[in-house]
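User: Can you model how S-adenosylmethionine sits in this protein?
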Amino acid sequence: MNNVVKHRPGDLDNMSFDLENILGKAVDGSRPTFTETVFLLGLRDPSDLERLYNVANDIRHKHFSNDIFLYGFVYYSTYCRNRCSFCFYNHENDLSPRYRKTTDEIIALSEQLQEGGVNLIDLTMGEDPYYHGAHGWRRLVQLISDVNDHVELPLMVSPGVLPDMVLKELAVVGADWYACYQETHNRQLFKSLRPGQDFDIRMGQRLSAARYGMLVEDGMMLDVGESQWDRAYAIHQMCAHKMHQIRAMTFVPQAGTPMSSMTSSGVEDELKTIAVMRLVCQDRLIPASLDIDGSMGLKRRIDAGANVVTSIIPPDKGLAGVAQHELDIDNGGRTVASVSRILDSMGLRRGPQTHYDQFIEMHRSVKEMG
Ligand code: SAM
Ligand code: MD0
Ligand code: SF4
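Assistant: Here's the modeled complex, given as structure tokens:
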């Protein structure tokens, strides 16, 4: 079953679009309008899709040459107080393995990823009460500070929703990025995906983080009941909010959760969404996550215009992924070596650290958020 609702009835009625013209304008740097975006997301003809992917690739190349950046992923606590209906680690799921790595372990894992050759370390957790709340904030800030003292690479934090003051402190002690995905910019759908959570507070976190000098990432989930219109709206919102990194991840149904029996309609829509994001937000970072299809799905995502590989995880360390908690981890499929082989075969390379650092410095501008 395809969980995607068609675009709003009547939205594109009586409108005609010229694909060649839209793609030509995009190559010249002029982004598709909102209705053109809905149109592009609805393409189905294989030859049209091939043209779309080729243009997305050209635009990626124009801004990033052959560089693909690699992100190491450390999911250091899988405890969570929230009840997101799509997530394996939601508080009410008895099936999910819970662990919390110690600071020493987190540092050692980060050092190992650094030695392996990633460009950034993404420190992610559930909203673990150990790090959230009156006593927790201090521990969280200390943890990020300690990791920052031991690794030279840029750090991304994905800790969930925090008080503004804590966000600010994280920026001060060395967090370069704050990642927090809205999942959808449709308020109604948000309520069912993230029950009990506040849409505006989650949105405001990224804007605050940017004010404190961090780069910010937003993301949407696909196949969770959204329409093409919702997808196009999310892309244009992420762009309007000047997100530095934007992602789309296909929903992977999880045992023990309220959405366990939904089926996924495959990866085609994610590829199309990645390509359309590249046309709309041309010079932004767009991940190809190993957390949906593992290394098998990497080439197609990069061919669709992605320029970052996320969810690189060292094998045999007892670390989990989020959407695919085991896939390709212990067989080494999510290592820099394995990813590099795929990049080599595509004539691409791990982006040099100097290039990645330049991207951060160029965008780490309090001005940019206006
Ligand atoms: N707990 C923090 C939070 O929710 O912001 C950090 C974890 S966050 C990086 C986990 C993200 O992975 C979610 O925001 C969602 O976009 C994605 N995700 C989680 N479960 C998923 C699933 N079953 N399928 C696809 N993506 C999923
Ligand atoms: C990923 N599993 O990159 C990770 C996660 C959190 N910042 C990222 C969703 O796919
Ligand atoms: Fe917790 Fe994040 Fe999963 Fe939601 S997505 S249940 S906040 S770990």
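A couple of observations from the model: The radius of gyration is 19 Å. Residues 184 and 220 are 5 Å apart (CA to CA).
User: Helpful, thanks.
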